[in-house]
Each structure stands twice: as C-alpha cells, then as structure tokens.
Design goal:
Four copies of one chain form a homotetramer. Chain A has 19 helices and 23 strands. Chain A is α+β, with helices and mostly antiparallel strands and about 475 residues long. The first copy, chain A, folds into two domains: about 240 residues, Aminohydrolase, N-terminal nucleophile (Ntn) domain (Glutamine Phosphoribosylpyrophosphate, subunit 1, domain 1); about 170 residues, Rossmann fold, CATH 3.40.50.2020. The first copy, chain A, has a seven-stranded antiparallel β-sheet with strand order 3-2-4-1-10-9-11. In chain A, strands 5-6-7-8-12-13 form a six-stranded antiparallel β-sheet. The first copy, chain A, has a four-stranded parallel β-sheet with strand order 17-20-21-22, sandwiched between helices. In chain A, a hairpin with a 2-residue loop joins strand 9 and strand 10. In chain A, helix 1 packs across helix 8 and helix 10 crosses helix 11. The two termini of chain A are about 20 Å apart. Chains in contact: A-B, A-D, B-C, C-D. At the A-B interface, helix 1, helix 2, helix 8, helix 11 and helix 13 of A face helix 1, helix 2, helix 8, helix 11 and helix 13 of B.
C-alpha cells in the first residue's frame, strides 16, 4: 500500500517526482522520500508525514539532477517509520543504487535469513533492502542483468523503480499485482503507480508496464524485455474497489466507471425499497451513483466528510470518547430524517466504523437504514501489499452477513457477489483505448482465500530483533 | 468569516470548545484560540494554524475550568496573525474579560480614534479590541450593562461570546448578519456559529440567539434580554450559498436543502441540453444534485477533490507553474470525455479558478462545457464579515455575464437571479421546527450593493501605523 | 534583571540591536525582542529563548528601519513568558510607541488599579504596560513631555528606552539603580545596559545616562534634560558583585577590577591557612584572583564549568537525581586532592548550591574546605529589579554565618563586611576617565534592608487574575 | 574526534549513557545517539545537535533496557550528519549488533572496496560500518571471536564499544591512540572516553582499557583478553594539549596538571618581560597558570568567554562582519590596558583566530602582546581521529614562527619544543595511582610527521559516490 514515481530526463526531476507523489498521497501518508541523481552523485531526502509537510522548498532545491525516484509509504502501526521509509539508497561495488517498492514479497524472510548467513547486515525491515542485497551480490557487469537475477529469486508482488547514477529501471512482477504506468512528459519518461500522477504533472499516458516486464531508460533511450516465463495475470481487484483514486485509469479501466458498475450490479443483486441512496464518502460515492441510477432511488450526499481530519488531531481523552468517525463524517439531517436510507460503502473490515455510521444516520432521524457493500465479504488478509488486518480481526471471516447486519444494527445488509464484482469490472471496459493491459484477470484472495502465490511462513517482522 | 464557540458549566469546557472549533474549521483556518475560566483565573492558548495543529494534548490540559470561549480566524493576507488571533483577553477594573467575535463593525475606526484620544492604547487591529475598550470604560457594576452600553456604540455585524470569571454572555447584532446558536449538553449551555458544532459534541440544539438578543449564563442560570430597538433582519444569504457547512442548520433552514433548491431553480432559469451535471466539490455538490433532479440530466462526480491540499504545500517555482487548482481538483476523464458537461459552482469571484476548471474539463475530453452559478453575480464587497476582495477585483462588478463566459471560455454561463435565489431560500423552509428564527429576511449586499448599514470610511487597517 | 539596547540612525538598526542583546544575554535568557521603526511603521519580533535562538535571519530581515530598541528578559517561574516579553509596543492617539524596561516600579500595582478604574485594559503583568498607559493619557503634543509626565507618577527603578516613529528616548530614574550607557557608532547613537554591548558592536562609549536624565535623539540630534529634583544616587552594588559581566565598565568602574578588590579585601578580613584558592566560575573568578594575590595562596581553576548546560537539558527523573550543580561544575581532583582549599563565591542565596560544591570538593579529596564570600550576607529581597527569592528563602535572613557554615558543611565561612565591600568598590576607582558617573553612592538594600524607596504593598502579580 | 560510553547492568542504562555523553559533549557536538538492549530487542535514538537538545524525556523513556552504548559525533563540514551519526545498529545472521567508534581506520577505504566486491551494500561513509560488515561475515559462533577476527583486518585508531542483545564488548587498538576507561557504578560496568563521564554519573574509575585489549561483559561477569601481538604505545599527546577536558584523567595523568606543566616549561623555554599572563579560555587556562607561576608574572583572566555562543547564532550578513571571535571572546580593558601582555594558547591552526585575538588585546590598550603556545608548531594532519585541516591549511607547515608572528601581529611568539612537551607530560606523573596505563609513550605525528601507522591512500570520503 504505497505509491511510487520515477522520472528520467527532466531538468526538474525532483519537482516532478514531488508533484507525482502528491497525486499518489492516498496510497501512503506515513512517510515520503525522493532520491535524485545528477548523473554522478545521489541526493536523498526522506521525512515522516505527508508529501506537502515532508519537503520544504529548501529540501527540494537540495535535490538536483535529471533522474529521480520517489515513494509514499503507508502507515503500519508500531514500526519506526523513518528507518523503513523509502527509497532505500546504498553504495555497493558498482556505485550507487536506490529503489522504491510497492508490493510485498512472500519469501522475503527466507531470503533475508539466507543473506544474513552469508554475512549481510540489515538496517530496516523492508522487502526493498532484501532486493538490494540480492542485487549487490550479482557480479554481472550490467545492472539490468543484476536486477533480473535478483528478482528471479523473489516471489510475490512488486512494482519497482530502481535508480542508478544514469539509469532508471522499472519492473513489475509476472502476475502484475500492483499497478505501474509509463508516461511521457516532453522528452522525459515518467513512471507512476496511477494515472492521476500523470494528470497533475501534465504527462501523457503511454501504456502500463506489463506484468513480468523490465523497462530500462538511459542515454540510449527506452528498451524493455520480459525475462521471465509468463504467468497468468493477477491484478489486484481491491485497487478498483477501494484503493485507487476514482479519477485514475489503471489496468486499462476507469476506476470511477468500475465503481459505478459495481454499484449498479449491487442494486440488481440486493434491491431494496428506499427513499434515498447515500454514499460513505469518498470511496463509496461512484458506487452509490451507480446504485441510484440502477435502482431509480434518488442519490443524495447525506454524509459530509470533513476536510480537516489529519494525523495531528488530538482526541481529548476523558469523558468525550470515540470521536473517530464523528470527526470525519456527519449526517445531513434534512437528507435522511424520516427516510428509508441506503448506505453504500466499499467494504466492511472490522465492522466498528459501519456500526457507528448506521447509528449516526439513525440519530439524524432515518426510519430505516440499509447497508449495501460494493464488494464481497472481506474474509482473508492480503499478502501482496494491502495492509488488511489479520483474519481474526476481519469480521466477515467468522460471521455471516446476517450476524454482521445485527452487529452493525442495520435493517438489511447486502454484499456484492464475487461473480457480480468480476462481471462489473469486466463490463466497465472494453478499455478506452488500444493501450490497455492485455488479458488481465484478477487476484481476489482477500474475498476468496485463493492465493495466487503461497505465503512462506515467517514474516520479516517476526524475524525482527533489532532497533526499535 | 470566523467561527465562535462558548461553553458554560462543563467540567471539560476546553475539550468541548476544541471539538466545536474543529467542526467550525471551515469558517477560519488561519489561527485558533481558546480561553477558559476556572471561576477565578483565565487560561489562554492561541496558535496559528488549524485547530488540530494548534492544540497539543498538553495545551488542552493547561486550560482548566468549566467556562470557555473559542475562536477560529480566517486568513487575511499580510496581517500578522498571532497578534490579531482571538479570543482577545485582558484585565481591567472589574477583573478579567475575554471576547470572541464573528462579524465586522463599520464604525470601528471612528470609535478607535475616539478611544485613543481618550488615552487608550491598542495592541491589535481587531474590532474586538475596540469593543473591549468601550466595555472597560463602563462604570456600571454589572457586566451585562457594561456590555449593552458598549455595544450601543458599535454599528455593523457582530455575533459575540464574552467570558468573565464566572459568566458567559452571548450577543448578536440587531440585524443578525452572522449566525449564533444556543444548545445544551447535559447541564451545560453551549453557543456556536453553526449546528455542526453541536452534532460533533452531541449537544442538543435549542434555538438561535435572536438578532438583537443578549444571553447571559451564570450561576443563576440562563436569562436573555433585547436591549435595542428592533431592526429588520438581515441574515447573510451567502452563508447559505457558500460559507456554512451543508450539514448545518442556520437561520432555521437546512443549508443542504437550500443549496439543492438553488440548484433546482437555477435549472429552471438556465436550462441547457447536456449529458452530465458535475459539481465543483464540495460547495457546489448539493446545488448540482438539485440541478440534476430538476433538469433530468444525470449527476456525476466528474471532479475529484484532493484531501491533501493544505497550507504547507510548496509549489515548485520554476517551469511547472499554476498548480493551484490542479493540486486541488482533477477531472474524471471517463465521466466527461465526449460529453456535454454542466459545471455547477456557487459563485465566481475573480474568474481565474473557473477558467482553469473549464480548461481542465475540456482537456479531459468534454465536447461542451456549460457553467451554472447558484447565486447572482458577485458585484460588491462585504463589509459585514466575509472576506471578499475589493470591487475592482470582482470580475462581475465590471463585466457582463457574456464577457465573463468569454473569459472563462465556457460554451454558456448562467447565474441564478436575485429573486430566484430568494425564492429558493424561502422554499427550502418552512423551517423544520417551531424553533426557527422568526421573520428572517436577508442581506444580499454582495449581489446588489444595497448595504443595510453604511460603511464609515477609514478602516482600522488604514489607520494602522504600528507593529508589523 | 533585564538588558536593554537602543539604536538611532543606523541602516542596520535591527542587526546592531541583535548583537547588543547578544552581549547582554547574561542579563536575561527567557525571552528576547526587537522593535524597529522605518520612520513610518513599526516592525516587531519577540520570541522565547536565547537571542541566538530567537531570531532567524529571516526575522532580522523582516525588521527594517534605522531606529530600534531591544530587550532580553530574565526568567521568572510560572509566568507566561511571551505575553510579558518586551519591548511592549502599542498604538495610541499620537501614533505608535514601544518601550523596553530594566528595573522594577514600586508603585506599579497602585497605578494600575487607578488606570483600570479609569477604563484601561491590560494584557500583560509588566510594569512597562503601566508606563505606556500613563503616557497614552497625556495630552501634551510632544512625546518628551508626555514621557516626563508619565514618569513623574512612577516610583522605583527604571532604565528605559522608548521608540516613537522617528525618535528614540532614553530615561533613567533619579537614583540610577540600573545602569544605562550612551555610545556612538559612526553617525548613530546607541544605548545599552553595559559597555560589553559597545565592545561587540564596536561602538565608542561616550558616557553613562545620568540618574534622573532624559535623553532624546531625533532628526535634530541628541539633547538631554533633567526634569526631576535631584535625589541621592543609589546605584545597585550587586551589579558589581555578581550581575554585570566582568569585562563591563558600569558606574565608571571596571567590574573585573571591583571584583578583584572585593577578593583582596576579603582576604584581609577573613585570612585562612590554605594551599589553594579556587573560584566558583565564572562569577567568582576575579574575586578569587584578588584573594590569591592578597593572601599569597596559589590560585587554581579547581572547578571546571561546562559550556553545554542550557535550558533544554532533561534531567532523568528516576534514581539519578540532583544533578543541577554537577552538570554545570566538576572538581579537578589533581588540584584539590589532599589540599586545604579556599572556595571563593560571590554570594550565598539558599545555601543548597554551596553545600553541593563543598561536598564535590571534599569528594575530590580536599583535606579542608574554607568558603569565602565576596559580599555580605544576603538578607533582604530586592524590589528594584533583581530577581532574588523572598526573605524566608534567603538562608542568611534567618541564620548566622556559623549556622550557615554548618549547613554547607565547610570548615570555615567568611563573608565580606558591608564596609569592606563599599571600600573595595571605592578603591577600584577613581574611575578610569573623566566620563564617570559623578557622585555615585550605592544601594545595598539586599544586604542591609535599607530600602531607598519604600515598596507599596500589592504587587502586580498579586493583582493578577487573568490569563495564564 | 568523538566520545563514546557503554553501560552494562544498570536499570537506567539509557539515562546513565545520556549523562555520560553530556560530560563528553566537548568531544563532539554534531550528533548524539544511544542504543539500548532490553536483553531481547534494541532501541535506538539518534539526532543531530547537542546531547541536551537531541533527547527529550520521551525519547529517553523510549530506550528501555539495562545495556546501552552511546556516541557524540564531531562536526565535519559537508557531510550529511544524521546518516553518519552513531551508534551504527544492524541485524545480521547472529541477531542484532550496534557499535560506537572513536578513532579513524587507515585502511577503511581498501576494506570497503573489498567488501563491496563481495556484495556488501553501504549506507554511510563511516569506518564503523566497515567494521560491522567484517564482523557480520564471520561464521564463528561467539561474538568475541567474530570481533577479534574483524579487528584483525583493520588498521589505525579505534576505541570501540559493541552492543549485542545481552553483551557489551569494549576494544582498543594495540597502540591505544584514543582513550577508553573502565569504571564501576554499583553493580554496573561502565566505559567512557574520559573520566569526567564517571565523575558526573558518580561511577568509580577502575582502570583504562589497555591498548590491544578486548573486554567482554555479560551475565558471566567481566573478562578480558589481548588477542594481538603487542605494539609500542602511541597515546595521542594532543588529547592532553587541547582535546580532553582539564578535569579528566586519561592515560593515568591529570590533564590539568599536564597543561600546567606545559605552561611552566614554556615559561622556561620562552621567557619574556611582561606585566600580565592572560589565557585564551578555556583550553589555555591551566597552561597560563603554569606559565604565570614559573615566570612570576601575575595571572589575570583578561579575556572573557561568552556562554551563549552556540550553533544557532546568525551573523548578520551585511556591513557588520567577522564577529566569529568577538562573539566568543572579549578583552577586559582594565586588565590589559597599558600593559605588556603574554597570551597563552594551546596551538595555532590557521592563524586567523590568533590574529584577531592579538588585535582585540591591542584595541583594549595593551602596550605589547606576546604569544606563547603550549605545544610545538602543528605541521601535519592527524589520520587517527582528530579533525585537523589539510597540511596546506596549517600555517606552521609552510611558515616559520617568525613569519607566523608577523602574520598574527604579535611582538613575540614562542612555541613549546617537542622535547619540552614530552618532558612536561612525563613530569606531570608519576600517575596518581597504581591503576595507570603502563609504559605509555605518545603519538606526536601532528607536530613531527612521524606517523606510527602509514595511511592508505583513498579515503572513504573520496570513494563516496552516493547519497548526499
């Protein structure tokens, strides 16, 4: 659950990367980092916090060079953030190297154990450091080969941008779990996790980096190769359901369009007599519009989201409690009072938030509250880069929809079916242009437990002994 | 353009005030302040920035007492903010006094000149300091009388909360330009600029403080009086159009409902053949829904607003420029591409932002772009507390709608008429309950130039000589 | 216990003031402030902390103008520092005014009460605000007269610099408790509390501002007058004993020379058989050298003072305690081990520090520890600007030297006599040049209780009700 | 030019380390770091700046455990400080490891190149990271053997403390360039660069860690071994001349006593007719006292050092320039005016500071200014851990004392001879107790160019390509 950006050949590579990261901010709010190369030397800045807070003008000016990679990192509790912030930059036998990673390796712990036995020392608990160690042990003269040989040893989900003194290399795992797009900004090549980054920097979208593809950009131009045997594609369907921005195109499809379609299918699968359709903003908005159109029930923005809820807000600790959801959302009494309300949300994780939202809508005078979820029950954790809680915390892993409905106190609850979801995604295409990712099929492990790659027991976190 | 909160009789008065200010954050982002009284001593904290940034847990814990008032201040360029941050707290012959003010006095400069001639010294350029000086010169033994006599001398817009050692006093000018509401939280009385503050702190709305009313809360309970001759009401219509939060009730009306009504009327006044209605989020959303329903054209969220645009974002200064609007908004290509799009916004100030939005929609592939504004042309500055630019900067003060349409490059432009606006507001009632403000009529000076109170030349700022 | 600086006629008035305050940093570490005038407008910056921390380059650049006054403030516990930081700047009928004050008024509380009865409001608990209110009530057209009439009403100790748009005025009370010097830097006139400020800015010392003198500098040049009836001089002897820097000339005498003389006289009054004379650095150093020369006992720097003890040091709170003195001082074992040691200090306040120093010297192996104090027992609090504790906390107010010696566990204790002190001061002159302050005699109230001006009961602090 | 601390077996190991580092602050002001072990996990905090600024109470409380090591780092210009701050902590095959290093390896660049060829990646440009890599490649089961085998490969100066989960290991290179002492605090063992750290934490000094010794402390207690063939000792004489604190014992000798002896010998080698001996505080103080006693010329503190010169002071950039020395030092006019003054300093590096001091003393009225230096001319850079400039910047490498005297504009200049220095050091013993370091002889390469270990060309800095 991170966002990455790469720039080759722009005199303001750091600024472009900074803006690109700003557009990808929803993919990670814990820390932000940029590494540039001036062709000879690297320049690095990493900070905790949002992109806008992390970089002052002075820091950006201290990042010269026409190559850059950047990273925004998602908050994972209890983990010293700055040490694990990316890009990860080092010196090794062949010079300097930096990497930014979106995804999760399933055999990182095993690889790390092996590397340590061979004398490697580790300073972070990131998968990226494992990749860099593998790469550093390669004796091949060209970095492309070293990267390919290093990645041959890893399994799991990775969309990566590597920076060398005068080369930018992008790579995506053979199943293509996480998105990675290629664009062009005048003479420069740019890479980013979502197309919204290109919108902001006014770059032209060229195509997705394909699953299993390695793209190299250097003084000779751009070239690409596919060093691995082809695997069936497994693009993350949850990017469409929740994670990506609605104004992004990923996987050749408009996220907004997919979500509307999810809502429309949901309306067919779980019809309800009601007076108003209300989204949980902002992730439920497009699905709610789709639901409203398909059902003919009017759409209204009956929940208002505050723009001012950030990381620094202090909840007073005494008698006033549990403001979490109320600080962020408030019901529009005039919209819901006396009405039969359908609430549209993308998913239910622990159920506590949904329960508070239902209560809030009732307190504002709703006669009935029906909850419709634009994806199937989330029953399994993700091992490929989305920070879902463990199975035991996922309410749907141990409770039926009826039980969940009772817990969140709604009058009825409907989840979109797995097939309904897949049909909706498919029908949101055909992709707008010929540039789409061919033959995309999806990873739905979080809804089904069908993991495309087995997870090797022993996470890096479980290995971690050092350095809090 | 500020927000105020007052609390009497709660053991966590500072925390309640803090949360109330958080809910009113949209009314002022420059500075936030809280003053509490423990019955004997005052405790004060004021900081620049958002409420969540301004107060740490330690600062809130340093604000004991069961009485409190708070203030959020709007950013006015070039003005040393902390010096002018409110509440304004002083010691005088009768003890301690603090005040928080929403509104603008029209004779502040004149009063200040007179006070200075009598030996007063000033430390800020706020109207509030003028009020406190007037009050301090009163020799009446009770503070209610001193307040009434002080306010008798001022003209203009004021919604005020005063704090004395063991008293809370709220006052609203006879025309009632700015809102002020009274609520109850268990045994405590609370005042706030908008009802959303009550929603968050779970207080019960009792009624609006009426224009011309002074409400005193102390150990003897709550009492109220109307010391001034009645004036015709002049509630600010722009609160409904743009300024207040859509989930607020003010003036006895749901802001969301009013805005929907404005949109519906706008659809009737300025119909258009189109494929999709797109709001400029978030202030245009309710009006767009109203427009869509009245016109039958589908509503879609074709502009996505970033949650991460704050005061600290640094725009790189070199070749990449003019990111202002793009950082905040992005078009959903799939929604607008190949379509005839109606953009709904609440107002046009200088025209530069609208021009960029039209361009953004066109770049995303729209065939036609029609702009509809849910209020009349903004032709005159506000002297009663909204921070509009001077007349010469208001594009509508010197240009016809046709000229404006040409400037912002839209295919057609329609403004809601003055009467349409007033009808829409009226029809959004009858107010939901018997508690509504009786006989409200509206100030529309920013659209008509009919100022209910004449402005006295010589602003305090123009007087200002000292202390940058 | 503050330091003040004033500059008239220098293109970098803020920078000069900043450097002058840096040289006076020992007179106040709590807060620092500068106000400049560009002839028309004032510019103000005040911050908590040391001068070097308080002002960034940007802040200094934001202080244009060729007139400036500045202030460093001593830390007084429990007092919100920034609110009380100086200079105090306001607007009033005649324009803008700022003031910086070193000293303490004895009738401030009474004056404040009277002003409040007349309608004044107060924002700080400083004496300076009282002076400004008095001044603002004056109706005389020229500021000099307003200042004189205001000061006519105050009693106590004051060395003041006032800033108006294009005038700088310095004033010193008729007894001259606190120092104030006049110097010249090319075409500019400068004022400062001690001559070390002139050394740093390379200004030439002209003369002291005389007790009872008001000096005005404006476009017409410098002029001076003495509006009050002459009083006998009462320069603070404790400035020489402890407070001023040893490299300063004040009162026409070298502080270093005075301290050496105090040490020499002390050696005569309280001789002792010993092997080494050790100062408590830095205030005891010159006296120890004087003692060593007079007694023939070798001088050694047997206590080393850390350069790194500042306000931010956190003392761990658990088992390791009472590091206060040890963090600041350490004994040189080789100097004191096996020796009979004479410790020279300037004064004993509560006795706790002296007790720890004696223990430290003994732990380092000293055979005997004799303490000699270069002033008489401190028995009374100062009401004229030195922040001594209340009488009950002054160990010498209730204990004999013998009892004190027992408490601090030294082998013998000797205080300089009152007459010895006065003779020493006198003999350290005749003042080096003809520029000295004529007829100086001294205030010794802290040693004798003979207060030159009676203190009016009711301090401003005791009046304080508001605003923590 | 760093300071290190290690603690084994104290419930407040972080607090003890923090205080120890505070006492060693003069050895490094750029950055400070502490790593603790709670027996299972490491906890780390590193910050730029002084110890007191670097650690808040919260940070110290976040460092639990009864083992700790700490480090203060000297500022080397142009080097990203936090990345190179120590201790350096990693995970490797055998668990967790941290190290703090005082000294400089002469073959670090060569080792690093070799390690990189074998696949190591580097994140800093410190020698410590080289040591950790060597150690991590060891396959021996016990850490003592891995440390010995790693150190067998390095050449140069090192005093080291290593931290493993439940072990503390100290090591000192066979020549013993940098000091390292062992002490006891109740049941805990402590290590520190100088004895002043023990004074502050009230630990008992046991003995120096001997050159070539490795000391291991764990649950089984303390044990020691000397795995290397013995080398002739080369303790750094410049620690005595300038670097260590005067209240420290290192190398079995009192630094204060050594400096007095240097001053006494200097008086004999370079006698002068003069009226007063003035030290450049604080490093010249003890030598000046020695000079004064040997010569019979009175000692006076004619230069006063400001306590408030820190890293944050901003020098105004315009007309007022070159305040460097004046901000720090000021002459006492009364001491030097009309006098023949002998200035005592420990060394002359570039000559610019000495030149300013001579000028300052003359401006204060001195008739003659004679400079005496308590060490020989500094002609060669140090490769063993003192941050001296390159040869070309050392004025004495290309100028005779006569030329230097002319440059700094003094009336006469005398340097202590090499033999005089060595005799003085020797005569400052015999060491106070039987605990002294046996057979110490000294490295004087900076005065003679006789380097005990040859420097291998190619520094790590020259290798550095990455990561600014």
């Amino acid at each position: 659950m991170c966002g990455i950006v790469g720039v080759y050949g722009h005199s303001e590579a750091a600024n472009i990367t900074y803006l690109g990261l700003h557009a990808l901010q929803h993919r990670g709010q814990e820390a932000a980092g940029i590494v540039t190369s001036d062709g000879d030397k690297f320049h690095l800045s990493k900070r905790e916090g949002l992109v806008g807070d992390a970089f002052s003008r002075g820091e950006l000016e201290g990042l010269p060079g026409h190559l850059a990679i950047g990273h925004v990192r998602y908050s994972t509790a209890g983990d010293s953030s700055l040490r694990n912030a990316q890009p990860f930059a080092v010196e090794y036998a062949h010079g300097s190297l930096a990497v930014a990673h979106n995804g999760n390796l399933v055999n990182a712990a095993e690889l790390r154990r092996r590397l340590e036995m061979d004398g490697s020392i580790f300073q972070s608990s990131t998968d990226s450091e494992v990749i860099v160690h593998l790469l550093a042990r390669g004796r091949e003269p060209d970095i492309e080969t070293r990267i390919v040989n290093a990645l041959r040893q890893v399994e799991g989900a990775y969309s990566l941008v590597f920076l060398a003194e005068s080369k930018l290399i992008a790579a995506r795992d053979p199943r293509g779990f996480r998105p990675l797009l290629l664009g062009r900004l005048k003479d420069a090549f740019v890479f980013a996790s979502e197309s919204v980054a290109f919108d902001l920097i006014e770059a032209e979208f060229i195509r997705e980096v394909e699953p299993g593809e390695v793209v190299v950009v250097d003084a000779k131009g751009l070239r690409s190769f596919k060093p691995w045997t082809e695997e069936s594609k497994r693009f993350c369907v949850f990017e469409h359901v929740y994670f990506a921005r609605p104004d992004s195109f990923i996987d050749g499809r408009s996220v907004y369009r997919v979500r509307m379609q999810l809502g429309a299918t949901l309306a067919k699968e779980h019809p309800v007599e009601a007076d108003v359709v209300v989204p949980v903003p902002d992730s439920g908005t497009a699905a709610a519009i789709g639901f409203a159109r398909a059902s003919g029930i009017p759409y209204d923005q009956g929940l208002i989201r505050s723009h001012y809820v950030g990381r620094t807000f202090i909840e007073p600790q005494q008698s006033i409690r549990h403001f979490g959801v109320k600080l962020k959302l408030n019901a529009v009494r005039d919209v819901v009072s006396g009405k039969r309300v359908v609430i549209i949300d993308d998913s239910i994780v622990r159920g506590t938030t949904s329960r508070k939202i239902v209560k809030m809508i009732r307190n504002a005078g709703a006669k009935e509250v029906h909850v419709r979820i634009s994806s199937p029950p989330t029953t399994h954790p993700c091992f490929y880069g989305i920070d879902t809680p463990t199975r035991s915390e996922l309410i749907a892993s141990s409770h039926t929809p009826d039980e969940i409905a009772r817990y969140i106190t709604c009058d009825s609850l409907g989840y979109l079916s797995r097939d309904g979801m897949m049909d909706a995604v498919a029908s949101a295409g055909p992709p707008q242009s010929g540039k789409a990712l061919p033959g995309a099929s999806y990873c739905d492990a979080c809804f089904t437990g069908h993991y495309p790659i087995e997870f090797k027991p022993g996470t890096i976190s479980s290995l971690k002994r050092v350095v809090n």
